Hints:
Order of helices and strands: HHHHHHHH
CATH topology: N-(1-d-carboxylethyl)-l-norvaline Dehydrogenase, domain 2
CATH superfamily: N-(1-d-carboxylethyl)-l-norvaline Dehydrogenase, domain 2
Shape: globular
Number of strands: 0
Structural class: mainly alpha
Radius of gyration: 15 Å
CATH class: Mainly Alpha
Oligomer: single chain
Helix content: 55-70%
Amino acid sequence: MTTLGLKMGACTDTFMGLAGVGDLFATAASQLSRNYRVGRSLGQGLTLDQAVEKVDQVVEGVTTSACAQILAKQHATEMPMFAAIDAVIHGHVSPLEAVQKLMERSPKSEGLG
């Protein structure tokens, strides 16, 4: 996210504060998070429609994953985590397959800033 943000003119500090890492941590770790609940449901084998229906609220991460893919392409930025999340959300791969593909990637420098 930071790499894409920098290419779009953002400041690194924005991603390291509450609006960045803080929000990401809360979304990823809190069972109260709508995105967390949808992700957990997908991991348990529900379809996207079933998972969103179960949450019965707006789940902004679904739209965000698609938008991130578009922006990454526009700015020639590789975003493997977002690509994996988007692939799982849309049923192209299972969560296990997505993790396996990520783990098989060659290490690369993050080179932020």
